């Protein structure tokens, strides 16, 4: 399991966008966004770099691992 700090998620729509982007990765089983904490928790075997890229491509900034 991997948890990343993500900047720029402000509402449910952002959470949906990030969830969909991360869950589109084949190695991801599930992505959970915590809007209050600004964190995304990823279940599965995806590489951190791939998850980071998916989130950044969706338009959000990934900070260090939480
Ligand atoms: Cu939003």
Note the main attributes of this structure:
66 residues; alpha+beta; Alpha-Beta Plaits; 4-stranded antiparallel sheet; 36% strand; binds copper (II) ion
Protein described:
- This protein is an alpha+beta fold.
- It has one domain: Alpha-Beta Plaits (2-Layer Sandwich), CATH 3.30.70.
- It contains 2 helices and 4 strands; from the N terminus they run E-H-E-E-H-E.
- It is globular.
- It starts with a strand and ends with a strand.
- The model has no long low-confidence stretch (mean pLDDT 96).
- Bound molecules: copper (II) ion.
- Residues 10-11, 13-14 line the site of copper (II) ion.
Which sheet architecture does the biggest sheet show? Answer: 4 strands, antiparallel
Shape-level CATH architecture: 2-Layer Sandwich
Tell me the number of helical segments per DSSP (H or I, 4 or more residues long): 2
Q: Could you say what the CATH topology is called?
A: Alpha-Beta Plaits
List SSEs in N-to-C order.
EHEEHE
Strand content: 35-45%
Alpha carbon gap, first and last residue = 12 Å
Radius of gyration: 10 Å
Structural class: alpha+beta
Bound molecules: copper (II) ion
Question: Which helices and strands appear, and what pairs or packs with what?
Answer:
Elements: E1 2-7, H1 12-23, E2 28-34, E3 39-44, H2 48-57, E4 61-65
Antiparallel strand pairs: 1-3, 1-4, 2-3
Bound molecules: copper (II) ion (CU).
What would you say about this model in short?
With 66 residues, the chain is α+β, with helices and mostly antiparallel strands.
